[in-house]
Amino acid sequence: MVYNPQKIERKWQRVWEEAGIFKTSDKIKGKKNFYHLVMFPYPSGDLHIGHWYNFAPADVYARFKRMQGFNVMSPIGFDAFGLPAENAAIKHGIHPKTWTYKNIERMRKQLKSMGTIYDWQREIITCDPDYYKWTQWLFLQFYKAGLAYRAKVPANWCPSCKTILANEQVIEGKCERCDSDVLQKEIEQWLFKITDYAEKLLKDLDKLDWPERTKTMQKNWIGKSEGYEIKFSSIPVFTTRLDTIFGCTYLVLAPENPIIEKLKNKITNYQEVKRYIEKSKKKTERERLSEAKEKTGVEIKGVKAINPANGEKIPIWMADYVLIGYGTGAIMAVPDRDERDMEFAKKYNLPIKKTRLVDSKKIAKKVKGKKITNYKLRDWVISRQRYWGVPIPMVKCQKCGWVPVREKDLPVLLPTLKDFRPTGKGKSPLAKSKKFVQTKCPKCKELAERETDTMDTFVCSSWYYLRYTDPKNKKKFADPKKLKAWLPVDMYIGGAEHTVMHLLYARFFTKALQKLGILDFSEPFLRLRHQGIILGPDGQKMSKSRGNVIDPDIQVKKYGADAVRMYLCFMGPYDQGGPWQPRGIVGIARFLDKIFNFQFSIFNDQNSKLKKLLHRTIKKVTEDIENFRFNTAISALMILVNEMQKQKGLEPEVRPTLLKLLAPFAPHFAEELWSSFAKASEDKHFDIKNSVHNQKWPKYNPKLIKEEMITLIIQVNGKVRAKTETEAGISKEKAKELALSCEKVRKWTEGKKIKKIIFVPDKLINIVI
RNA sequence: GCGGACGUGGUGAAAUUGGGAAACACUUAGGAUUUAGGAUCCUAUGCCGAAAGGUUUGUGGGUUCGAGUCCCACCGUCCGCACCA
Questions:
Q1: Could you tell me how far CA A493 lies from the centroid of its own chain?
Q2: What does pLDDT average to over chain A?
Q3: pTM for this predicted structure
C-alpha cells in the first residue's frame, strides 16, 4: 500500500461533509460548549501560507478540544468590506462586489482543502446585507445611547486612499494600507465614544489570558496618566508633575489652541503668530515627527500669565511640540526638570530656574488644582469617504437635523455604483447617487438627504463573533439564548498586528453592548494566542517581487494537506513563525510514510518499555497541545514511532492510541488508517460514527509513567564524570556509595578530601572536593 | 529616546523549579539495497583531538556545589510607541 495523500484527503473530506460530523449544535447533553475562533480572513483572492499558519494549528487545537469531550464551535467567515477590495477592483476594472464574491468562492475551496472542522453553515460575509443590516442596527443603538456622535475634529486624511483614518490606522505618520503620508484635516465625522471606556478597557486587561506584550501594547495605547489641571491666569494647563511648579518659567500653547484666538486683541505680534499657526497646519504628521528633534515656536507677545504658586509673571509661547489633542493643549514649561522644555528654553533664550520640589497635594490645594486623569486614547473616527463599506444609517433633514433611519427600514442598502472611485473631495462616491441620497426624513417626512460616508471596516469585525452563534437570524442580530450558550469566546487565535485595532475595538463593542443591556459579559475573548509570521526560504518577508512565495496549493499537491498542517506545527514555536524550509516538510512526509507502511505484530506485555513510552507520550502531547507547543508534541510522537520501529511487536493499545494522538494534526491520514484498522480488527464495514475524530482523547495511566529505573548523573565539582542506571528512590547514602565506587569517579576523587555532597533525588549527585 | 521580547550547531529548533546542553528533524558523509536514479534502512554528524580528554549557549563580570536558565554592564536583532507634559 502506498500513502497517497491526495486521494485519501479528497475521500475523507467528502465523507465528513456528507455525514456532517463537524456541524455544531448549540447544546449536546453532557458536553460543555467551547467557542474556538480564528480571526476571519479578508477575501484577498488566494489562501497564502500565512493563512494556513493561522488556521491549521488552530484547527489542531479545536480538534483536540473536541476529542477531549467539548462541544466545539469553530466557525469561519469573511471580513469582506474595505479599502483593498476597492483598490484591487479599481486596478482590475471590475466591481468590488464581483471581485469580493469571486475571491470568497475561491478561498472557500482552498479552506476546505485544509481539512478543518469549520461549520460552513455558520459562514458569515460582512458585505452581505443580511449581515450589515445588523452592523447598522448596532450603530443605531450606539447613537441612541450617545456613544455615536458627529463632530468636526482634526483627523487623519490619507491623500491616496482619499479618506479619513482612525488613529489606530496611522503608522508612523503613514497610512496603514498604502504607506502615504497622512495629512491633518478638519471634517465633520461620525465617531464612537471609545474614550468613555478607557478606564475599563485598561483595568479589565488584568483578567485576560492574553500574551503579555499584547496587553502591554494596549495599555500603552490607552496611555493613562494622572495629574492636575491648574490655571495660569485664564489658561488651563495639565501636568503630572505639579511638584515642579516652582521651576516653571513660561507657558507653551499648542498652535491650534482656541485661547489664542480669544487673546487676539491683546497680542501685539498677531501676524507672526498667525503665520506660525498656518505653517504648522500645513505640516503632515510625519513632518512634525521628523522635525521632533528641532523644536520651533513663537512668543505670543503682549500677554503674560501668572504662576499661581508664586505670583510670578511669565511669558507665553506657542509651539507645535505641544499637542492640542492631549490634556488642555497647554503646558507649564519646567526646563530644569523636562528635557524638551530645556531644549526649547535654550534655543529661544528663555529663563531657566532651579526648582525645589514641593508636595503635590499641598500645592494643589493652594493653587486650586483639579485632580485629572488623562488618556492618550482618542475617540474612534468611523466615517470613511469610500464606497465599499456599510452605509451609515443616518439622514440629514433641514428641519430636524440628523435623524436616525428607523430600525424597520434597515438595511440601508449599498447602491450598486458604476463609478465607485473615491472623489477626494471629502465626500464618499455615494454622494454621486441621487437615488441613494434623496430620501424622506424619518421624523417629519419632508425631503432629506442620507449620510453618504460608509463605516470603517473595523466596525464590521467588532461584532462578528456574536453573529456566528446565530448567523441566519432575521429578527435579531443574535438570539440571547444562543449568545449565552457560546460567549465569551474561549480561545481566539490570530495575528499580533491587530493589537491596537481590531482587538481594542472588539473589546469596546462588548463593553458598550453590555452597558446597553444587550450582552451580559464584559470581555469578548478570554484567551488569545498569536501566530508568528512565515518568511520565505531566504528568511525574507514573502513577496512576489522577491520570488520567495510559498504557495500552499503546490505544497498540498506535493505532500498533502496533512503534511503541510503538520510541518507548520513542527517548524517552531507557534508565535514565532520563521522561514519556510523546503526540506523541512520532507521530514514530516517521511514520518507519515513510515507509519503508513509500518509492519507490526501484536503481543501483550503489561510492562513493556513501549507501553510506558506510550503513556508518557500521551501526557506530553496532551500538555503540549494545550499550551500551543505543537512542535514538541510532534517530536514526542516521532520518538514514539521511532521506538515502535525498534520493537518486534506492539502492545494492542499502541496503534489505536497513536492514531488518536495523530488525529488533530493529520486528520485525513489518521482517519484512513483508523478505518482500515477498524475494518481489519472487527471485520465489519467502517461506520463514520466510529470515526477517529469521534473517539475520546486518550488518558495516560499515572502508574505507567513512573520511572522504576533512573539514570543517576555523577558530577565531581559540578562536572559530569559518570552516569549510572539505578533504581528510582535511591537514598543519598547509597548514591554516594555507588558514585564513589565508579572507576571514572575515583580517578578524580582519589586522594582528595570530600568537602561536600549535593544530592538531588533521582537526578544527580555532585561530589565537591 | 522610551517600553517589550529575544540572542543556543551548517539549518529549524529542544532543554519543569537553577541539575545530563543540542531532544526531534533537516543537511552532509560513509555503508546496505537498487540496472540506474529515487525511495528506504544502518552508522556518523557542535568545536579541538588519533585517543584519553578538553571545550561550547552574543561579549565581559558576578551569585552558586552547579548557570542556556538568576543578577550587573556591554554588543546585536526584532517588535511596539514616538514631543502625551
A1: 7
A2: 90
A3: 0.93
- Band the pLDDT of A37: cuts 50, 70, 90: very high
Q: Which nucleotides in chain B lie closer than 7 A to a protein CB?
A: 3-5, 11-15, 19-21, 23-27, 39-42, 53-55, 65-67, 79-85
Question: A289 CA, B65 C1': separation in Å?
Answer: 56
Give A657 CA → B40 C1' in Å. Answer: 26
Closest-lying nucleotide for A579 based on CA to C1':
B12
pLDDT band at A290 (very low <50, low <70, confident <90, very high): low
Query: B77 C1' – A757 CA distance, angstroms?
Result: 42
Question: How many whole angstroms separate alpha carbon A668 and alpha carbon A12?
Answer: 6
Omega cis (within 30) before A488:
yes
The one-character DSSP state at A522 is S
Q: Which of A667-695 are b and which e, b meaning 16 or more Cβ less than 10 Å from the residue's Cβ?
A: bbbbbbbbbeebeeeeeeebebeebbbeb
Torsion sign (Cα): A183, A219, A468, A141: negative
Alpha-carbon distances, residue A257 vs A155, A280, A332, A377 (angstroms) = 16, 12, 14, 19
User: Going by C-beta distance under 8 Å and a sequence separation of 6 or more, which residues neighbour residue A489?
Assistant: A35, A36, A37, A465, A524, A525, A526
**Helix, strand, or coil (residue A739):** helix
Per-residue pLDDT at A318 exceeds 80: yes
Q: Quickly give A216 CA vs B2 C1' distance in Å.
A: 14
Are the CB atoms for A625 and A63 separated by under 8 Å?
A: no
Distance (Å, whole) CA A374 – CA A727: 64
Computed over its alpha carbons, how large is the radius of gyration of chain A?
33
Tell me the β-bridge partners of A447: A440
The per-residue pLDDT for range A538-575, each reduced to its tens digit, is: 888 888 878 888 899 999 999 999 999 999 999 999 99
* Inter-helix orientation angle A561-570/A49-67, to 10°: 90
Q: What is the pLDDT of residues A236-267, one digit of tens each?
A: 999 999 999 999 999 999 988 999 988 888 98
3-state secondary structure of A18: helix
| pLDDT reported for residue A740 | 84
pLDDT of the residue at A119: 95
CA A289 to CA A586: how far, in whole Å?
A: 49
pLDDT above 80: residue A289: no
Q: What pLDDT band is residue A681 in, cutting at 50, 70 and 90?
A: low
Residue A263 corresponds to which amino acid? Answer: L
First to last CA, chain A: 62
Q: Which nucleotide is nearest to A641 (CA to C1')?
A: B24
Please, are residues A527 and A209 in contact by the beta-carbon 8 Å criterion?
yes
* CB of A588 closer than 8 Å to CB of A566: yes
**How many other CB atoms are found less than 10 A from the CB of residue A698?**
21
pLDDT at A339: 85
* Mean pLDDT along residues A129-137: 97
At residue A713, does pLDDT exceed 60? yes
pLDDT of residue A173: 78
In the complex, which nucleotide's C1' lies nearest to the CA atom of residue A594? B40
Q: Is there a contact between A601 and A679 (Cβ–Cβ < 8 Å)?
A: no
Give whole-number Cα distances, A760 to A295, A709, A715, A765, in Å.
63, 15, 11, 6
Residue A292: pLDDT over 90:
no
In whole angstroms, give the CA distance from residue A380 to residue A170: 12
pLDDT at A293: 63
For the CA of A640 and the C1' of B28, the distance in angstroms is 26
Grid cell digits, residue A297: 515656536
Mean pLDDT throughout A32-56?
Answer: 93
C-alpha distance from residue A625 to each of A63, A588, A595, A691 (Å): 10, 18, 21, 21
Mean pLDDT of A533-537: 88
3-state helix, strand, coil in chain A (%, to 5): 40, 20, 40
Distance CA A536, CA A90 (A): 29
Q: Is the pLDDT of residue A85 over 70?
A: yes
